């Protein structure tokens, strides 16, 4: 494979890894440009949207090399984003050969996520803290903690089985609402009064599309209007799916005799 083709492929692979891991559009474009200039291909052009990457590199003898990547799934994996950024800076500084860069990029791709038990525990602590932060009592936070412990394994299960974002968030919201109602009823049986809305708020915060909304604003600020609009629409769709899931469960519980919300 010619060096220019290798450069284009490396740039596209690094960009894809960044986009899959939650990197911003401007960061992806800058990475492509840095890699191209570092390996003697200043005439490298990139067009990036939220789910696609197009890289074009002008050959010195005429013609061009084109690479395209379709990003099917996106998640938040900040350790991979940091690793690709560090590799990009070293490449720009001339400290990494093309072959070594390709090998290191594969190593970055294989970086594992946090341990499952740690993700589950962190979700439980997060939901408890948010329930308390939004005006709940210590008992509300205690109940929300167990909701979080139930939520995260379900999130991981849906992600592993390729569930779409709308379906995934709707089902997760249904689970949060059901678990919150159940926890409130259990706490009431032992004489403790909890606030259902505070428990549910704590439980749905991990589902709220904060990163998507933040990246949408940053994309618009950087004049990436197409990507910004897509991300904003994605954030709105997630919010609607959460509202549908919670609303469905609360309406259903209100129709069940003996259930006091």
UniProtKB/TrEMBL annotation:
> Which residue ranges does UniProt annotate as crossing the membrane?
115-135, 141-159, 166-187, 199-217, 237-260
Q: Does the keyword Cell membrane apply?
A: yes
Q: How does it sit in the membrane?
A: Multi-pass membrane protein
- Where does the protein end up? Cell membrane
Annotated Threonine/serine exporter-like N-terminal domain ranges read: 10-252
Q: Which UniProt keywords apply?
A: Cell membrane, Membrane, Transmembrane, Transmembrane helix
Q: Which domain of life is it from?
A: Bacteria
InterPro entries of this UniProt entry?
Answer: ThrE-like_N, ThrE_Dicarb/AminoAcid_Exp
Entry's family note: Belongs to the ThrE exporter (TC 2.A.79) family.
Name of protein: Threonine/serine exporter family protein
């Amino acid at each position: 494979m010619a060096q220019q083709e290798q450069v284009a492929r490396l740039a596209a692979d690094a960009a894809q890894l960044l986009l899959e891991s939650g990197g911003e559009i401007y960061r992806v474009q800058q990475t492509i440009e840095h890699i191209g200039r570092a390996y003697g291909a200043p005439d490298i052009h990139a067009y990036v949207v939220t789910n696609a990457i197009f890289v074009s590199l002008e050959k010195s003898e005429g013609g061009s090399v084109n690479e395209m990547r379709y990003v099917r799934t996106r998640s938040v994996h900040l350790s991979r984003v940091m690793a690709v950024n560090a590799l990009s800076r070293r490449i720009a500084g001339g400290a990494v050969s093309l072959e070594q860069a390709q090998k290191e990029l594969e190593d970055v791709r294989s970086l594992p996520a946090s341990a499952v038990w740690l993700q589950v525990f962190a979700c439980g602590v997060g939901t408890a803290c948010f329930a308390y932060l939004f005006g709940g009592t210590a008992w509300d936070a205690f109940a929300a903690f167990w909701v979080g412990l139930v939520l995260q394994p379900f999130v991981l299960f849906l992600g592993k089985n390729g569930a779409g974002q709308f379906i995934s968030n709707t089902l997760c919201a249904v689970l949060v609402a059901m678990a919150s109602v159940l926890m409130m009823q259990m706490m009431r049986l032992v004489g403790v009064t909890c606030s259902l809305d505070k428990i549910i708020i704590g439980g749905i915060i991990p589902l709220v599309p904060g990163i998507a909304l933040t990246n949408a604003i940053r994309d618009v600020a950087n004049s990436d209007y197409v990507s910004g609009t897509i991300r904003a629409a994605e954030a709105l769709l997630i919010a609607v799916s959460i509202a549908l899931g919670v609303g469905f469960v609360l309406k259903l519980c209100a129709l069940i005799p003996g259930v006091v919300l």
